[in-house]
Amino acid sequence: MPITPIKELVNRANAQVRILRPGEALQLQRDGSATLVDVRDIRELDREGRIAGAIHAPRGMLEFWFEPTSPYYREVFGDSAKTYVLFCAAGWRSALAAKALEDMGFENIAHVEGGFAALTEAGASLEAGAAERNSPRKPVGEKRV
Length: 145
Hints:
There is one protein chain. The protein is an alpha/beta fold. Helix content is 39%, strand content 16%. Strand 5, helix 5 (92-104) and strand 6 (109-112) form a beta-alpha-beta unit. The longest helix is centred in the last third of the chain and has 13 residues, at 92-104. It is globular.
């Protein structure tokens, strides 16, 4: 059996799931109708920072944290009135994650086109990651190496 290229899997997922532009996702977060869900690896959050108000749900635990009968279930994902808007670095993992959740039967799922990079470009408020918080401060104008 031939291997399906990842880009094809992402394209199939994107054909199935709701995709939001970054500005739309941020507006839904601001008006309280959506929760942003960051599926990136913790090392990415520590390195690049976090979107303010987003909940971290690592891709490897996402299905377990969403599913109410799972021993790992998180109540924060149980509000059927909210839309859970997933994002990763560029939108590939979040497309696959959104498809997995929809395949499980969740209807209030979307993902952000362009991911974290697009959200930050659209003006999302950032919180520093651990790498930034734990690094010594350099004088203004001095470059980090």
